[in-house]
Amino acid sequence: MTRATAHKQTAACRVRGLGSSVSLSVDDRFGFAAGDPNLYRYVGNSPTNATDPSGLEVAGLAHFYPLYLGGCDEQPLYELTKEQHTAAHDVFRKHGVGGKPGSKAEYDAARAKWAKLSTEQQRAIIVESMKKAGIPEPLIKSHIDKIMKGAQPGINVTATRGTPKIGQRVSQLAIQEAGKVGRLVTALGTTVVFAGVTYANDCYVREGEKAGMKMVDKTSLMRELRQAQNGDGLPSGAFILRWRDGAVKVWIEKKDGALWILVYKITEMDDNGIIKDMEPYIRAGELPYDLKPGDPLQNLLNGR
Question: What gap in Å lies between CA 27 and CA 30, rounded to an integer?
Fold first, then answer.
């Protein structure tokens, strides 16, 4: 099948168009959502190191409920590396609901098998694929219902893929930051609220009043935050640490040409988690934030 216009003639080549006159991939149906601003470029401009016959397993934005199996295009879009993307698809192939790139018969069989699975079975496979791709557990728990919503199991809806909407994208930075928060939760034995997601310490949830309940003192909190920062485990954005008997808000601020970790003790919070009042707990000048190469907060220090 060909697509002809007044300007060019292309042959449909799976999910790409191939220019017959220039022997070059001239369009990418995913557009800039594929993760590369150069729409002519193939596999990140590294064809000697990678192949992607299907056009579906490169670095870029990906649905964890594959559209070829009926996932909704409005589900969260994760920014994945090629390795993460391939790891996720390998899980589907392991369960017989994937296929070799370019094999229509295998994908048709995969869709038929997927449609026969229960919603619980489909959900379990998707969660497994997210774990294999290295997505932190709290993000999986936060997004899995949104990923499952609106699905049409067994229906190929890849043609419905459009431009990502605001708030739909989960960036690599967000994935990395979520991993940091998870480690911080373990170290402090507390619950952390970061970017609208609650990260609960397992012991806190499992044992209730027996673990993770008492708010740490100021000295202990400073020590743990310093250790987290030294181990590249401190999120760059503001977050809330919540114990049974108290909560604090932590963020990083520039003052007198340096970055400091600031902590405010929350004295009033409503049932929806909205802070009504708080007071200084660790002030600027007490706990310095040391920048490391490539730290996203470098722009804050530079005043950008």
Answer: 9
207-258 tens-digit pLDDT? 444 444 567 788 888 988 888 888 777 888 888 888 877 889 999 988 888 8
Closest to 192 measured CA to CA, from 150, 151, 251: 251
Q: pTM for the whole thing?
A: 0.64
Strand 258-269, strand 246-255: pairing: antiparallel
Cβ atoms of 40 and 25 closer than 8 Å: yes
Strands 77-80 and 169-170: parallel
The values of phi and psi at residue 146, to 5°, are -70, -35
Per-residue pLDDT tens for 179-210?
Answer: 888 777 777 777 888 877 777 765 444 444 44
Question: Domain boundaries in the chain?
Answer: 2-170, 177-301
Question: b/e string for 121-138 if b means 16 or more Cβ within 10 A?
Answer: ebbebbbebbebbebbeb
Instruction: Compute and round to an integer the Cα radius of gyration of the chain.
Output: 23
